[in-house]
Specification:
Rossmann fold; two-stranded antiparallel ribbon; single chain; six-stranded mixed β-sheet; 10 helices
Length: 300
């Protein structure tokens, strides 16, 4: 057993192993599909290589790529990192809600684990911050494949707890990671928007590319409840008993306004935004991330 797992509870080891396997299957299946697709084939090569520049060692030129594209590319290695990615993963109590196969916490962790595996597979650096009201675990950026284990352990919190408080967390991240990179926020964003946008704006001012994966359950988006229902808060002791049919129209209008506010706020600050339902296949997150990353390279 690796040293990093020696003191873990057996059930925690099982959870981490399941998350590891799921992430690897999602990424490998996604990349296999990209290789088969003529529209994505060059993107895969783009991720695994960088263009040859004067001074590069000719021994690392990938001649197979040259034969296909008539362009010189070199394979990238650990010390040749061109992306530094930090995954900011919400593990607050509201992430425990779920009506699909995975609740928001498990879905969000799978998104983060898949992205971590994808980044490490491309020999780039990835770190992780799991947070609620504050950072609960911080994993530094590394490029080693074995680093995935540390990230999976950071995501495996005993139980999501506490409320979400985004600005202090994002401010701390901005101070902890001064080098320009990519910040990926994975959260249900059930928090006050002004502090959220203030924190995201701070990351952008520090030169980071920022991407937001907004994780919500179908119930939260569609409000399908019928008959007398008691709604209980996951982050406080408050509760509401009501007839949901009487609230449905108002709720859907409010959630629509909220989503529009979040989308507009992200666009206004130059932040890539993707709304993910927990019922949606996870490779959608990888496609959004890849599109964002290629856009980041083109902007540089």
């Amino acid at each position: 057993m690796p040293d990093s797992r020696r003191f873990l509870h057996p059930e925690a080891i099982k959870r981490i192993a399941r998350l590891d396997l799921r992430a690897r299957q999602i990424v490998e299946g996604f990349l296999a599909g990209m290789h088969r697709s003529p529209s994505f084939g060059q993107s895969v090569e783009f991720l695994q290589h960088r263009q040859y520049t004067a001074g590069d060692d000719p021994r690392y030129v990938d001649w197979k790529v040259w034969a296909k594209q008539d362009r010189l590319y070199v394979k990238r290695f650990e010390e040749d990192t061109n992306l530094r990615c930090t995954l900011l993963v919400d593990v607050s109590a509201s992430m425990r809600y779920g009506s699909a196969a995975m609740d928001k916490y498990e879905y969000g962790c799978t998104v983060a684990a898949s992205l971590a595996y994808l980044v490490l597979r491309q020999q780039d650096a990835v770190g992780c911050v799991a947070f609620d009201e504050q950072a609960r675990t911080v994993v530094p950026q590394r490029t080693r494949r074995s680093h995935l284990e540390s990230i999976l352990q950071a995501l495996d919190v005993s139980a999501p707890a506490n409320k979400t408080d985004l600005y202090p967390v994002l401010h701390k991240v901005a101070e902890t990671y001064p080098r320009r990179g990519m910040m990926v926020l994975v959260s249900d964003l059930l928090a006050d928007r002004p502090p959220l946008f203030r924190g995201l704006r701070l990351l952008r001012r520090r030169g980071h590319d920022v991407m937001v994966f907004h994780i919500l359950d179908d119930d939260e988006l569609d409000f399908p409840f019928e008959g007398p229902t008691r709604f209980e808060s996951l982050e406080s002791s408050s509760a509401l008993s009501c007839n949901p049919r009487a609230l449905r129209r108002g709720y859907l209008a409010a959630i629509g306004d909220y989503l529009e506010e979040v989308r507009r706020g992200c666009v206004r600050h130059g932040i890539d935004y993707a709304l993910l339902r927990t019922s949606r296949p996870l490779d959608a997150a990888l496609a959004a991330f890849l599109s964002s990353r290629l856009g980041m390279h083109h902007r540089n």
